[in-house]
Amino acid sequence: MPSPAAYSDFGPMRLNEPLSNWTTMRIGGPAEMFFEPHKPEHLADLLTALEKDGVPWTLIGGGANTVAPDGGIPGAVIHTGNMRRLFRDGNGLRLWPGVTLPTLVRSAQGLGLSGVEKLVGVPGHVGGALAMNAGSVEWGIWDQVEEIVLWSPGPANEEDGLKFRTWSPKEIQPAYRHGNLGGRVVLETLLTLEESTPLAVKATQDEFLKRKNQSQPVKLTSAGCAFKNPNGDSAGRLIDSAGLKGHCIGGVAVSDIHANFLVNQGGASAADVRQMLDIIEQTVLEKSGVSLERELVVLPEPL
């Protein structure tokens, strides 16, 4: 692997950065190289250089649905937090991947643009939200996407020699809790929203936030929902019915407020989370016959 100095042109880089500082569950060992590019073009150039040199890379974005491994991550870890540009484009918003979801929600409200109210109270970055199609049971952020610019691994485009281009939602075909990016990386997106008023948008946001505060552990150290909701049912209900609400392993507990949330009570490890997820899956399958599908991304331990 080339010296870390070879990548100094792509934005700030630190060695052996603790990943527990960059995930909402506050778990994870050191990243061998930790990058924070400032612009989408820096991100694209960095990814291209790492791919060319055969350096493994991991994109964590805001770390809102990610548990980093206790042993850290070799190669490069890329955090998008410096890429926070957001600007109005007609009736929509054009966003870089590091825009936080609270910033998106607040900006849309201030401009009187409706469409992303259901993201109120959700942590993370726009890039990660697009990768997992964040939202509610009946709505996802991809419902508002008009176009998206993606960097793609592999050969460059034959027409222009670049490794990124603009895609439509029809080409990507996202699904429930799945952005279907297929290894591609978000550089920019345009969301189409509806004209409204700041007061009307705020009223809708407040109603969603009230419901969320009543039903989810929004103020605790969590990484959001651990499992996707099965068709016609709720993962939280199934976990609760299996008698697992409040169950603890090491520093990790199933939330007493919402059973589909795992909470770091202090000192939790990625090993605790893996064990807890396994137990939940096994117990729910035994009790209800339903195989839960994970929404929480638990990155593998280094070999």
Q: Which fold name corresponds to the CATH topology of the largest domain?
A: Uridine Diphospho-n-acetylenolpyruvylglucosamine Reductase, domain 3
**N-to-C series of helices and strands:** EEHEEEEEHEHEEHEEHEHEEEHE
The Cα radius of gyration reads 20 Å
Annotation field: number of helices: 7
Query: Which structural class do the helices and strands define?
Result: alpha+beta
Q: DSSP strand (E) fraction?
A: 15-25%
Describe the protein's architecture and organization.
Helix 2 runs antiparallel to helix 5. The protein has three domains: 75 residues, Uridine Diphospho-n-acetylenolpyruvylglucosamine Reductase, domain 2, CATH 3.30.43.10; 114 residues, Uridine Diphospho-n-acetylenolpyruvylglucosamine Reductase, domain 3 (2-Layer Sandwich), CATH 3.30.465; 80 residues, UDP-N-acetylenolpyruvoylglucosamine reductase, C-terminal domain (Uridine Diphospho-n-acetylenolpyruvylglucosamine Reductase, domain 1, Alpha-Beta Complex), CATH 3.90.78.10. It has a five-stranded antiparallel beta sheet with strand order 6-7-11-9-10. The protein is globular and about 55 Å long. The protein contains seven helices and 17 strands. It is 26% helix and 23% strand. The mean pLDDT is 92. The protein is of the alpha+beta class and 303 residues long.
